[in-house]
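Reopening this ticket.

The earlier resolution said the output was attached, but the attachment link was broken on my side. Pasting everything inline this time so it's all in one place.
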Amino acid sequence: MTTGLVFNERQHSYHLNGVRLPGVTTIIGASDDKSGLLKWYGDNGWAKANKMRDAAAVLGTRIHAAIERFNIAIGAEEPYDLYTLEPDLLPYVEGYAQWFNANVREVVAVEQMVWSEHGYAGTLDAALVLMDDPAPVLVDLKSSKFNPQYPNPRPIWRLQSSAYQVALLERTGIACTRRAVVQVPSNDPGTVKFHEFERSSNRPDWEGFLAALKLYQWNASLARSTPGQGGTP
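Inline output:
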């Protein structure tokens, strides 16, 4: 299981028996295309963009935490009172609850820390059994804004879900043959968008993540061997 794996929230880092492991989002972020983000900063200006980014991050964290509590309560068969939520969070969780009740049969895992023999760690959002298939689905929750100009699901989400899919299988034996993103857009309260990846993409997406991991490890080793270059191994 995940014995020995510790998450340091302040540093946002994972340690396995004292050894630091890079997180899935850190690995992917190091190779993600930042051109759209840079354009957005250019359009809005540094100060305004930072303020907007920080506000979006706070709201996204709050939405994620509220839905996490919902999944945990349902998985433990405990009552969950939506109306104890802060008013601005209510429509997001109501929308998710409606989607959940119509589509989900069982909660298999929620916010589970995992690590892989390949040298990375992370915390997956959920593994759920849907009504249409007895096999669990690896689910990643996103609260990012929905923008029809961007591809949905976004390519980078494929690598993230693949990394969790493999690590969950290694640590628990839970085989999620399906991967999906449940998007609760912060700019459209009450809406839920379900994006499922083709099963045929499991292998190529995993190979894509391994390539990102290899690049991250190469950059980290270069930073360690080059004084003054910085970098976080």
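Reporter confirms the inline version is readable. Helices lie at 24-31, 35-44, 46-75, 90-103, 155-172, 202-225. The chain is about 45% helix and 20% strand.
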